[in-house]
Amino acid sequence: MGTWGLAPFENDDALDWLYTLETAANTRVIEQALNAVIEGSDSYLEANDCHKALAAAEIVAAMKDQPADVFPIEASTWVKHHTSSTADELILIAESAIDHIRTKSELRELVEESHELSEWNIVLDDLLSRLRA
């Protein structure tokens, strides 16, 4: 797995998921990525599922006109063609997924091992604030 930063689109899993989103006609793929984390919260959350869910949460924020400062052009193009009130329905799901990832996941463990937990929490706090804006 390639990871080069803490932001949601700074890893191969998220970019691979973005390729799937590009061909999606609706928000179903976003819901699936978020729900994979929520439904798996009683078991061990794999880092790849967490990366996909965080990317999906970024898409939801962008659908609310709150994109990240660094946002892939492919994601911007998809959002431009799919912005709707559906984003409001996905906010609570995205917030819940972020909470699960932040508290109990392989991704959290990996970030802790790299001694970047406080920086990662800042990234997640920023995402949450944009979702709630």
Structural write-up:
- By secondary structure, the protein is an all-alpha fold.
- It has 7 helices and no strands.
- It has helices at 12-22, 28-39, 47-63, 73-82, 86-103, 106-113, 117-132.
Outline of this structure?
This protein has 133 residues and is mainly alpha-helical. The chain has helices at residues 12-22, 28-39, 47-63, 73-82, 86-103, 106-113, 117-132. 69% of the residues lie in helices and 0% in strands.
Question: What is the topology?
Answer:
Layout: H1 12-22, H2 28-39, H3 47-63, H4 73-82, H5 86-103, H6 106-113, H7 117-132
Helix pairs in contact: 1-3, 1-4, 2-3, 2-5, 3-5, 3-6, 3-7, 5-7
Q: Helical segment tally?
A: 7
Large-scale geometry: globular
Strand content is: under 5%
Sequence of secondary-structure elements? HHHHHHH
Helix percent band: 55-70%
How far the N terminus sits from the C terminus, by CA atoms, comes to: 32 Å
Global mean pLDDT: 93
Largest sheet: none
Q: Residue ranges: pLDDT <50 for 5 or more in a row?
A: none
How many β strands by DSSP? 0
Cα radius of gyration in angstroms = 13 Å
**Structural class computed from helices and strand pairing:** mainly alpha
Keyphrases for this structure?
single chain; mainly alpha; 7 helices; 0% strand; globular
